[in-house]
Write a structure and sequence with these properties.
The structure is a homodimer. The first copy, chain A, is built from 19 helices and nine strands. By secondary structure, chain A is an alpha/beta fold. Chain A has one domain: Metal-dependent hydrolases (TIM Barrel), CATH 3.20.20. In chain A, strand 4, helix 5 and strand 5 form a beta-alpha-beta unit. In chain A, helix 4 packs parallel to helix 5 and helix 5 runs parallel beside helix 6. The interface between A and B is large, with 82 and 81 residues. Chains A, B: This is Amidohydrolase. Chains A, B: Pfam families: Amidohydro_2. Chains A, B: Keywords: Hydrolase, Lyase.
Chain lengths: ~425, ~425
């Protein structure tokens, strides 16, 4: 085990201007609509509170304690300093810096909560363009460390979204593309080939497409916070199996797709469920074909094209990494959101990764993200050497990593043959 | 370990008449509408085929090989004989005997695939009444062994459904109530108190409410079989968390709710996810209250009120039984569906349960179902002694059940404190 400091990249951070400051980034033609949008902000904030998305007491303490650092959510000059505290050398930047009060929402709802059927396509695109323009500037301030994600409301206006993706890419954004996780009632689902121009431009420009957690069918869930918390992950991940099952990765072999901040705990079971169905196990023998276009197992498309921005993984999720694929999991600190690990990332890493093999930790904490988003690891190495925690800092020098042997050797038990890891591991104990 | 034969109850079987034979069970007022419905059957069958729900080759072989036994799907005289072959002494009977060609659909779509928004409430209720009437007769033919599930299209006509539940219960049906798993676009979700009369009558009459796998948003999924197979479980299980999070079990403390034939592989992660959110772990501290009505952890409501008719469990699912709760899992052979284990249940049980502790197997294979649906175990014991497999028949006398110790002692790791079972078990190995 080498004790070199980790080169840590957060595959999930957030940046956004206080909403009213987006005005100069909007085309003058939208200023009037923007005034109307600003006038609704109180109502939108009230809806958030009604659903229970805002705990007043927590919000008060949070903003009081972090008032200054939180400006790093939009202040280019402060941003790297906050990441340095966390030992993070690079970041992939999604919208909505303020996930507590929603005060940094991009114009016209262009952000994490986008639902295709619920926005006016032209306005959403204008709002996304404003955010993308601003974000390009933020990234140019520290180009080696920042990858900005292009916000692209593709539902309702594919050509316009494709044009904006090209424009934003030309403007320097290299963090990939974020599409709405929900198309919404009555809109074309992502299996529709009407979206092919989106997949095509992402493939052509080498931009991974993403969904990011946030949207859910609010009307249907009412004000029941528990329903929102339970379902939001599913609605965010849903496009993943739409792309896998409907031939998108066959038509666009260079396309990559990631699901960010929706956890990873569901992915192992999803791959198991899709693979055993595809392999015509007993329960699916009665069914017909999954389609000419399905030339490989779902998990093979997943390995070749998909990744999970798991952000701040829990032990339960890390324990499933051999089923999901260690190389398919990207860590993130969710800066500057309170549900993330900033500004205590070093402690969190020591807790979650202490007994994880170092080579696996290096991949999940940064190296896979570097490949996915094109960070220059050689260029970032000196900074990593200065601010990155070492395996020893995470307690990994004292760890017995053999506890993972059964799970690692079994991998995807439905493909490797042996029984579930619990039993395989126990059998080895017995030997 | 006593070697007494197992008392096996299938918590998931199916019965239904060839559709046209439901005519005498319909009120004459619906005969004209029924003729129109019959005329659409070819179109409905074509839609099934287009989605890929029917593999012609498989269907041909299936019907040829089992032509005679499949009549037990509606022929009362043949039914017990088929269950005897499987070693099954009792059954909980859902609709739709033919899951291959759909030839036994109850009138007006009253069956497994019901989606509230897609049926005409009065007709769906009439179809359900016809099926329930016929099913009562089937159950009266062998009352000790049969529990018929009341089909109740509650979406769109709560009072009518409540009346039908009372009528069918008075008519002798004791297998609980099956509601549509999907209310559908624009209809009231199950958190709406408009459904309280349904929960009230189920509580009053001691009838567990169920969803059964089958429905999915077909329009949205198009003809992509993979999407249907991947999502149908989620849509079937969805009402479970709607009831848990929105206070239904607080308002109706005697209500029981089950999810049948939707697998069990998702339940452990669901409970983990809901509990950690409820316990305000780091990621949910920023959120407000889950509601005055949430007096207990989601998993406590689950243990007290819910169960999973897991039907034919895979090893992966059985390995998660200590998180889900051994006492919350009911086995079923899905007779006479080809994705079930009939007519080879004895072999299947030997494969899946060989290393499961006998007392746990007895609970999952019959005793929990006996309690849930009020079977007379003493009365069924002589039959069980005659046809039931013994633990020895399943190879359990040779099994080392200690392989499960770590998982059993850990239970729900998020409540019991220790780390995930993989690590806990390994740590014990190291000691």
């Amino acid at each position: 085990m080498t004790n070199d400091p980790y080169l840590i990249i957060s595959a999930d951070t957030h940046a956004g201007l206080p909403t009213e400051q987006y005005r100069p980034y909007l085309d003058p033609a939208q200023h009037e609509a923007f005034d109307a949008f600003l006038a609704q902000q109180t109502a939108i904030a009230d809806a958030r509170k009604q659903l229970g998305l805002q705990n007043e007491e927590f919000a008060g303490a949070w903003f009081e304690e972090h008032e200054e650092e939180l400006r790093a959510g939009w202040d280019a000059a402060k941003r790297d300093g906050e990441l340095d505290k966390d030992g993070v050398v690079g970041e992939v930047i999604f919208p909505d810096a303020d996930a507590v009060a929603g005060s940094t929402a991009a114009p016209f709802g262009a952000g994490l909560g986008m639902v295709g059927a619920e926005y006016e396509p032209e306005l959403a695109l204008a709002g996304a363009r404003a955010h993308n323009r601003w974000l390009a500037g933020l990234c140019q301030d520290s180009p080696a460390r920042r990858r900005g994600v292009i916000v692209a409301p593709i539902v309702g206006n594919v050509p316009g979204a494709v044009t904006e993706i090209r424009r934003a890419h030309a403007d320097g954004l290299r963090g990939g593309v974020m599409i709405p996780s929900m198309w919404g009632e009555g809109e074309k689902p992502y299996h529709d080939q009407a979206y092919d121009p989106v997949w095509a431009v992402c493939e052509e420009l080498g931009l991974p497409a993403h969904t990011h957690v946030g949207a859910a069918p609010r009307q249907e869930l009412g004000t029941h916070l528990g329903l929102y918390v339970t379902e939001v992950v599913w609605w965010s991940a849903r496009p993943l199996w739409f792309l896998i099952w409907t031939g998108v990765f066959e038509r666009f072999p260079g396309l990559r797709f990631g699901v960010t901040e929706a956890g990873a705990w569901w992915a192992g079971s999803l791959l198991w469920q899709m693979d055993v169905a595809y392999d015509r196990e007993h329960g699916t023998q009665k069914l017909a074909s999954f389609g000419e276009h399905m030339k490989r197992r779902p998990s093979e498309y997943f390995d070749a094209h998909c990744f999970i921005g798991m952000s701040t993984p829990k032990r339960r999720e890390l324990s499933q990494r051999y089923e999901i694929g260690v190389g398919n999991l990207l860590w993130g600190n969710d800066f500057p959101h309170p549900e993330g690990t900033w500004p205590h990332t070093r402690d969190w890493l020591a807790h979650a990764f202490a007994d994880i093999p170092v080579d696996e930790a290096r991949a999940m904490l940064g190296l896979t993200a570097a490949q996915t988003y094109g960070f220059d690891t050689a260029g970032l190495r000196p900074l990593a050497d200065r601010i990155g925690p070492t395996p020893q800092d995470l307690g990994q020098d004292k760890a017995d990593t053999s506890i993972w042997n059964a799970a690692r050797e079994t991998g995807r038990h439905w493909l490797t043959g042996p029984d579930v890891p619990a039993v395989v591991g126990a059998a080895r104990r017995a030997r």
